[in-house]
Amino acid sequence: MKNIRSSHIHIKHPPYLVGQSLLHPVFNQFHSGLSASWFTSENTFSVEGVFDNASSIIRCLVILSGSCEIRIDDDIYILTSQDIVMANLQNSKFKINTSHDFSCLELHITLEFLEDIKTPSWETEIFTKRKILRKSKFCLSLRKAATSLCLSMQKGFHNAPLRCAMALAVIGHSFEHIQESHPQNTLSTIEKARLDKAYKLLLSRKDIAPRIIDLAKYSGLSATRLKTGFREIYGCGPYSLFQAHRMEHAKILLKKYSVTETAIQLGYSNISHFSAAFQRQFGKLPNTYRKKN
C-alpha cells in the first residue's frame, strides 16, 4: 500500500474502522496538541508513505508486542517488543512491515506541550533533532503506564484528566530512558560480553528465572554490577526482562494449549498468578487472547 500520509492515520476514525488495520488506530487527543494512537494487528501488515505531520511533532513509539521493520528514507530500523524510540521525522518517507500480534503505542508530542510542562530548552533541543534519537528497552513501570493508557482509550473512558496523566507518565518514563546528551554507558567491553553471556542464559529458560546469584557467578560479574548493567543496556532488571520474554512465549503456547497447560509449561503452580501476569503485560486475560487466536 503506497502514498499513505501519516496525518491521515493519526486522527479519529469511525468506530467500525478502528482496530481493523494499522491504518485505523485507536486515537485520543489531549492537551496542547499532545495525542496518542494505539496500533494493533493480529496479522502481518505492510504500509508505506510519508510522515507529513508538523515539524514541531516529536514521535514517541512504545512497542508493546511483536516486532516491525521500519525504513525511513535510506535507513532501516528493527524494533521489537519492549523497544522505545523518540524521533522527529518531518517529510521523511517510510515503509513499515510488522509481525503478527503487533501492538504499538505512538504519542505525538508538540513543542507547545513541552513548553507548557516547563521542559528545559536543552532537553527540548535533544528531542527535536530530525533523526531517530536512540532506541532503548523500557522498564515494567513504563509498560504498565502504556498499557493502562491503551486500555482507557479503547474503553472510551470519559475521564480526560486521568487519560492525560497516563500519557504524561509514558512521556516521563520515555524521557528518562532516552537521554542522548547524557550517555550513561560506563561498562567496559569485557563487562558487556559478560552481560551478554548472562542475557543468553536468562532467556534460555522460560519456566523459572535463574537466580541473580547464579547469573552473576556464571557471567563473572558481581550481583550488583549484573543488575546495574542490565538496566544500563536492556532498560530493566534481569527478572523484568525474563518475565517479558516469558509472557511473549506464553502467546505462542496459547495458540496450541489451554491456559492451564500453558501456565504449567511456564512454571506456574497457580493459574491465577499466570493470568494476572499475562494481563499486566498485554492488557487482556490469557483466555480472552486464546479465543481470538
TrEMBL record:
Listed SMART domains: HTH_ARAC
InterPro entries documented for this protein: Homeodomain-like_sf (IPR009057), HTH_AraC (IPR018060), HTH_AraC-typ_CS (IPR018062), PchR_regulatory_protein (IPR053142), Tscrpt_reg_AraC-type_HTH (IPR020449)
Keywords: DNA-binding, Transcription, Transcription regulation
Domain of life: Bacteria
Gene Ontology molecular function, alphabetical: DNA-binding transcription factor activity; sequence-specific DNA binding
PANTHER family: REGULATORY PROTEIN PCHR
Protein name in UniProt: AraC-like DNA-binding protein
Naturally occurring in which organism (per UniProt): Zymomonas mobilis
